[in-house]
Specification:
eight-stranded mixed β-sheet, Aminopeptidase, ribonucleoprotein, alpha+beta, Ribosomal protein S18 acetylase RimI, Acyl_CoA_acyltransferase, GNAT_dom, 8 strands, acyltransferase activity, transferring groups other than amino-acyl groups
C-alpha cells in the first residue's frame, strides 16, 4: 500500500472509494459526483494498492483570514472526508491515513483536528480510539411526507410548490423529542483532537 498526495487524475477512484465506503453508514445518501476543492490550504491523501484508490483523507486548514474549525486562537484542521473502500477495511488503512495527515498537519503548525460525523457507533468508537473527544453535536433531521411536514410546521410560501422531502439542522435542546417526532434523525457529532 502506498499513501501519497491526491492528484487530479485520482478523482474517479476517490469518488468511487468514498461512495462505496459510505453505503453502510448513516451518510449512505450523501453521494458526491466529484471531489470537493478547498478554499484554504488542504492535506489531501489517498491510499493506493495496485493502482486502485482504497482509502482517502481530506483535511482543510485554518488560515488567518478563514477559519474552518471552531476553536478560537489556534490553527486547526477539519477532516472533511475519511474513507476506506469496503473491500479493504479492517487493515488499518484509515489509521495509517490519519497518522500521515497528522504528521503533515503538525509540520504545518496545526494545533488540533476536528471532524463532524453522524451517530454510527463504530465510527464514534474509531474516533475515540484515535484520541478524539466529543465537543459538540446537533441533529440532522429528515422530513418525508405530509405528516412530518405538518409536525415541523413547514410549508412553502408558494402554494404551487409542495414540499415532499427536506433535510434540516436542529440546534435546539429538545433532541429526544425530535428523535421521537421524525422517523430519520441523526446526531451529528464534532470530535476534536489536539496534535
Amino acid at each position: 500500500m502506498n499513501i501519497r498526495a491526491y492528484e487530479p487524475a485520482d478523482e474517479r477512484g476517490w469518488v468511487r472509494c468514498r461512495v462505496l465506503s459510505f453505503l453502510d453508514t448513516a451518510y449512505y445518501d450523501n453521494v458526491l459526483r466529484e471531489k470537493e476543492a478547498y478554499k484554504n490550504p488542504a492535506i489531501e491523501l489517498v491510499a493506493e494498492i495496485d493502482g486502485q484508490i482504497v482509502g482517502l483523507i481530506d483535511l482543510e486548514l485554518d488560515t488567518p483570514a478563514e477559519k474552518v474549525c471552531s476553536k478560537a486562537g489556534q490553527v486547526g484542521g477539519m477532516i472533511w472526508h475519511i474513507a476506506v473502500h469496503p473491500d479493504f477495511q479492517r487493515q488499518a488503512i484509515g489509521t495509517k491515513l490519519l497518522r500521515a495527515a497528522e504528521s503533515e498537519a503538525k509540520a504545518r503548525g496545526v494545533a488540533y483536528l476536528q471532524a463532524w460525523t453522524r451517530d454510527d457507533g463504530w465510527v464514534r468508537t474509531w474516533y475515540e480510539k484515535h484520541a478524539f473527544t466529543k465537543v459538540d453535536s446537533y441533529l440532522h433531521v429528515y422530513m418525508d411526507g405530509k405528516k412530518e411536514f405538518d409536525q415541523a410546521q413547514f410549508e412553502s410560501n408558494d402554494k404551487e410548490i409542495l414540499p415532499m422531502t427536506a433535510f434540516a439542522h436542529y440546534i435546539g435542546s429538545e433532541k429526544e423529542q425530535m428523535k421521537e417526532k421524525f422517523a430519520r434523525v441523526h446526531e451529528c457529532i464534532c470530535f476534536q483532537k489536539p496534535l
